[in-house]
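Example 3.2
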Amino acid sequence: MTRKKNIILIIASIGIFVEALDIAIINLAVPSVQSHYGLSSDTVQWLQTLYVLLYGGFLIIGGKLSDVKGRKTIFITGAVLFLLTSLGAGFSPTFGILAFFRAIQGLAAALIMPAALSIVTHTFTETRERGKAIAIFSSFAAIGSGSGLSIGGLIATYWGWQWVFLINVPVLLIVILIAWVYLDADVKPAVKQKPDVISGLVLVACLLMLSYGVHELGSISEHYLMLLALFAAVGLGLIFLKKRLAAEKEPLVDLNLLRLPSIVMGMGAFLLLGAFFTGFLFVLSLVLQKDMHFSAAKAGLLLVPFSILSALVAKFLLPGIMKRLSIKQTGILGMCLMVLGGILLTYSMMSDHYLPLILLAVACVNGLGMTICYTSFSVLSVHGIPSEHYGVASSVANTTYFLGGGLGLSVLSLFLQQGGSGNSVSTLSAVVLCLYACIGLAWLFIKKLDH
């Protein structure tokens, strides 16, 4: 690799690192945010719900814009937007303003991620060199996700929760300046294309209305007319979206792709994985800090070994597993570990928050299950699909993961404080997480792949 190529790879990798970090980093800072603004657990979860919904909803649009407007333009635009929203979030005087900036952060991440990947694949054109570059790029995303909890806990304890957001600013400023200098100028496509932004906006609007409606089901007797109107609007929006996708010459997503068995299986698996894992991290952070009274720093340090375990599993254990098992069997193994982790978390909450059981749950989920699930589901999503459709199939799969995270949190919020146990999180919420994982496991058993 030349020096310039190395710099470009570092720029793209740091961009994806920050984006991946911010998904996890907020979790151990949630109790501090909750105390600062005087919020309930089901309200503060909107910080994560809004981020993942807008991230997932605009991910495909981000990829299309990267192709149409140019990789450099969209990458820098996303990075600038992420920087500005990080500043806004760090200095937010009210929770409403904080939630707004957090939502726009999700939109910025949806621009950064596909543009960064496109930069890497177009910079490294030789097959072996490209494979190595993508592996390095992906490892930064994995490290960002894995270390987010630990870093977030330390920052929230010693600097204050605001720095969970403000820490992005100097990093992104350097990335933007270097990207401006080193990335090649964008080349306009020979054929003018117009991304289907309207479909993307309708999709995001439907998902936000659906999430809010689910969140408010607990007070249905008071707001039944509003909920009825919301769900009717969601139904009409989805009908409009289906007709638009079928009529457009260059739709946001080709509906024929969504009928392929591998994509259907991958979408269902990713939806439930997102619902389970996002909810698991959220519940775990509240249990450790609000109920077990660990500081954010202590909770973060407690989880460091499992981030290391995840990296070791990806490097040494997973390749051997995938040689011995089919890709579907590998996915089933990963989801079995998620079910086991959910059961252990539930039992620990029934046993007065017995720490060894909680750590075993984290080992199953963070250390083993997530690495195995995410990798196998990614491969499942493109199984038997022509290579020219890999990009779209991968984007759809990742979109479904984040949408599952947002919708799963909305459902989970209905059960967070049920049961009157006096704890900040009810045991019933862990049961809901187990249900997500069990449905995901059943989905993998029921659905069949074409061979």
